[in-house]
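Treating backbone geometry as a discrete language has practical consequences that deserve illustration. In the encoding step, the backbone of a single protein was reduced to a row of integers, each denoting a local shape. The amino acid sequence and the backbone structure tokens for this protein are reproduced below.
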Amino acid sequence: MKLVFATNNRNKLKELQSILGDTIDLVSLKDIGCNVDIPETGSTLEENASIKAAYVYKHYSLNCFADDTGFEIDSLNGEPGIYSARYAGEDKDSNDNMEKVLQKLEGQKNRKAQFRTIISLWLDGKEKLFEGLVRGTILTKKQGDSGFGYDPIFIPEGFDCSFAEMSLRKKNSISHRGIAVQKLAAFLKKYYKTV
């Protein structure tokens, strides 16, 4: 089954393909000839994911899903939230984003945070939402060189290493995106058995 993932981020595509397995042929926006930078004009993760998936479904008539992830820090009232990718500027530079977080939390005792992912699936004209959430703590400096985004500064609850120090398989089994995608995969498996 072919399914469009509304992204051109090869890291995310690879991560999700490894979770969904071989039964789903995951393709990117570029693969379907969509070169539009779909504007994320929503005020919530749910709205942004929905905008992206709906755009592809309506313009290309292809089943599609999109995700939006927020890194939400307790002591910063949920910042950076929907602005996670461009927290330090429109360049969407992960290192700059992490540096800004570390600076803002300097001397802060409460370093609790969470990653939250929302997936909007547009399938045969209907939308379904899935959520994945993982809580943890922000480190005082980067650790590890795997993963992407804020992975090097985030340790999930119950672990003693950052997401960036984990294998892709390990991270996928416990991450916010992994949890949301597992819910998506379970739904797709059930859905295609009943159609």
Notes: The helical segments are 10-20, 45-60, 94-104, 168-174, 176-194. The beta strands are 2-5, 25-27, 64-73, 80-81, 112-123, 126-138, 154-156. The first helix runs from residue 10 to 20.
